Amino acid sequence: MLPSAKTPKKATNLSLNAEVLKMAKDLGMNISQTVDALLAEEVKRRYWEKWRDDNREAFAAYNERIRREGLPLARYRSFGRSLGDGKVADATHKAV
């Protein structure tokens, strides 16, 4: 689970480029807030990237099942009937 914005803060030491740090301070930037926000975005991106990689096989299996069997409850759809249900009769035929 990803942390919420309400999670307490913890003091830490960072090594930052001295010139960039000085420029940021001269611009009145809140360094802690900026680093916290950017780090949170990167953690979120990597978390979902890892989740997607960890679940790649499940996605493939689900997509294969839909390819073979069609969409669940497709026969009850009242829209897009011309698109069919996505089911494949066999490997030599296109979707029916």
Q: What does this entry look like structurally?
A:
- The chain has 96 residues and is mostly helical.
- The protein has a domain at 18-83.
- 49% of the residues lie in helices and 0% in strands.
- It is built from three helices and no strands.
- The chain has helices at residues 18-26, 31-54, 56-69.
- The longest helix has 24 residues, at 31-54.
- The chain is elongated and about 65 Å long.
Brief account:
The chain is mostly helical and 96 residues long. The protein has a domain at 18-83.
List the helices and strands and how they pair.
Layout: H1 18-26, H2 31-54, H3 56-69
List keywords for this structure.
0% strand; mainly alpha; 3 helices; 96 residues; elongated
Which spans have pLDDT < 50 for at least 5 consecutive residues? none
Q: How much β-strand is present in the residues?
A: under 5%
- Shape by Cα distribution: elongated
Spatial extent as radius of gyration:
25 Å
Structural class: mainly alpha
Distance between the termini: 41 Å
The biggest beta sheet is recorded as:
none
Helix-strand string: HHH
How much helical structure, as a percent, in the residues? 40-55%
Number of helices: 3
Report the mean per-residue pLDDT as an integer: 85
